[in-house]
Amino acid sequence: MMETNFFDTKIEFLKGVGPQKGDLLKTELGIFTFGDLLQHYPFRYEDRSRFYRISELREDLPGAQVKGRLRQLEVIGEGPKTRLIGQFSDGTGSMELVWFQGISYVQKSLFRDREYILYGKPTSFQGRFQMTHPEMEPLTPENERGGYWQPVYNLTEKLRRRFIDSRTISRWQRQILELAGRQIRETLPDSLMEKYRLATKLQALWGIHVPGNEQHIHQAKRRLKFEELFYNQLRLIKQKILRKTEYPGQVFGRAQLIRTFYDEHLPFDLTGAQKRVIREIFEDMRSGKQMNRLLQGDVGSGKTIVAFICMLLAIDNGAQACLMAPTEILSDQHFQGLSVFAEMLGLRMGRLTGSTPKKERKILHEGLLDGSIQIVVGTHALLEDIVQFQNLGLVIIDEQHRFGVAQRAKLWQKNETVFPHVLVMTATPIPRTLAMTLYGDLDLSQIDELPPGRKPIVTRWKSDQHRLEVFGFVRQELAKGRQAYIVYPLIEESEKLDFKDLMDGYESVQRAFPEYQISIVHGKMPAKDKDYEMQRFLKQETMIMVATTVIEVGVNVPNASVMVIESAERFGLSQLHQLRGRVGRGADQSYCILMTGLKLSTETRMRMKVMAETNDGFVIADTDLRLRGPGDMAGTQQSGVVDLLLADLSKDAEVLKAARESAMQILEEDPELVLPKNQPIHNQLLHLRENESNWARIS
Ligand SMILES: Nc1ncnc2c1ncn2[C@@H]1O[C@H](COP(=O)(O)OP(=O)(O)OP(=O)(O)O)[C@@H](O)[C@H]1O
């Protein structure tokens, strides 16, 4: 009994916490129980292993611990300028201590001529060292040797005002760990701890909250990260196995239309990679189990035809197919791309977006219900309950991470008897580590080859001063009969200003290229007008397209071979890569020119450099993850899928790999986790599930 209950003990029962501070911990940090506090990990450490003499202090130290005597303490100044000044010396020199806040409290708790240990950031002021708001504690026989690392925890201002600081938190952590003693249950099986030489859970918790040295911190982190990723993967893989064994799928065995399409209409030979992924997808769609597959392919790798051929397999077997895209423009692009093929075979296709007129909707709803429309392409408007199918066999979701898992599930449920097969398609390369945690429950197919004859896009980075030269280059390309994009950022917060930039840009492009027709497309235009301008550009009635990022995905104009991206520093790496993917889609040599201002951060320079150096979407995605962290990657934050406390997907790829392999091996051998050696895993899964439902109740 004791064992499970101990960690669920309410935090206010910890000595020194009590009801008031307990409430603060709940509201400020979401800490309700002992277990919650133990999971509140520090985000960095201060080195308290050694003492600095005052004569050794340097301004570049992030913090320093000093042992000495408080010589003086006095309040000076008045009103808002009041401050408390202390003089502190250690025999090698003296320094000044300064407090602006909490003066009366500090004054009461410190005594002149006593010895203290203090920790703070040394700054130099008029040739003397100073510390503002140092942490102080009386020198005692226990602490006079230093020799530990102080964890620093995430705290709020409100907590600090109530004198709950990192030291308080780590004292509480220590108290819990001492009370818990050996009750701390191991959550990983012995075999894994031996194989990866991991610290035990008990050691790890001590090591992370009460470390004696750097080595302890390192080992504790390694163990806890492994555990975190191991359970993340274990649950995803379990989910995947469950789907494969429990969820039936329609068996699509017939392939008549596909044969006709291959024999009579295929516009080009498929690449080896395209053939391979089609084979993988077909195997799933014939397996009798529901397909849940992620199709990744870099920009321009030819996903459209793959999607179409998969749709054909469903249609061949009397089922319907739908494709859902995150934006109207992208869904229209897909519609156009697919209808070229659909027309060849006389298939009926529909489209449904927010701006589809009522009358059209009605026809579409009927056609889907009676089965006369075989393919529908649209946005999340497809999710509305009124959209019913006769027999939905295949759901293709483009750019799924913008939709979220719940919406994905909603589409499946459009078929009452058997779930449709699901293919998630993404054009934004996702770093491997992120894909594993985001889509770890899906099988993966990858188009890792571009259609033949493509020349790598040449990318140049130029400062604004070179605009004339850049426009001169664009003119040369236009003279060869090619087309050009000129892209402006349009970011929501400063939309008005951006819009002005776009319009100014448009005018200057018009002035610079009076001999050419120019299109303009931006997000605020009615869909009809966007469509019209896109069509004009596609038909080469206009030769230059001035646009915002609405053209980021899906736009396919093979004759366009130059792209100029204005204010490129305002775009993320993956976004730049997506944009650049709009050129280089034909056989001509293509160019992308990144225009930036002169004053740039190191990170921005790095981004531009990477873009100029590589066309490889995966390298770019990995760099993006490294520079920005997973929270910022498109849509992942909102979907809440990447929910890791300690592990960092940009740095812990190795740990993730080991965790995933281990989870797979264990589930392969013991899918139900019933073997005695896997008991710790079984228990921990129950515990995690329980905790989640607690959370659900609270929030
Ligand atoms: N095997 C192939 N051989 C030659 N051309 C191909 C082949 N596959 C696709 N293409 C052509 O390559 C271009 C890009 O294909 P598609 O639009 O399907 O790319 P995509 O993967 O959807 O890229 P994006 O996500 O950037 O839109 C199209 O013009 C298409 O007709």
TrEMBL record:
EC number: 5.6.2.4
Keyword DNA-binding: yes
Domain Helicase ATP-binding: 284-447
EC class: isomerase
GO molecular function, one term: DNA binding
InterPro entries given in the database record: ATP-dep_DNA_helicase_RecG (IPR004609), DEAD/DEAH_box_helicase_dom (IPR011545), Helicase_ATP-bd (IPR014001), Helicase_C-like (IPR001650), NA-bd_OB-fold (IPR012340), P-loop_NTPase (IPR027417), RecG/Mfd (IPR047112), RecG_dom3_C (IPR045562)
Gene Ontology biological-process annotations: DNA recombination; DNA repair
Residue span, Helicase C-terminal domain: 473-631
Catalysis: reaction(s): Couples ATP hydrolysis with the unwinding of duplex DNA by translocating in the 3'-5' direction; ATP + H2O = ADP + phosphate + H(+)
Gene3D superfamilies assigned: Nucleic acid-binding proteins, P-loop containing nucleotide triphosphate hydrolases
Function: Plays a critical role in recombination and DNA repair. Helps process Holliday junction intermediates to mature products by catalyzing branch migration. Has replication fork regression activity, unwinds stalled or blocked replication forks to make a HJ that can be resolved. Has a DNA unwinding activity characteristic of a DNA helicase with 3'-5' polarity.
Protein name in the entry: ATP-dependent DNA helicase RecG
Native organism: Siphonobacter aquaeclarae
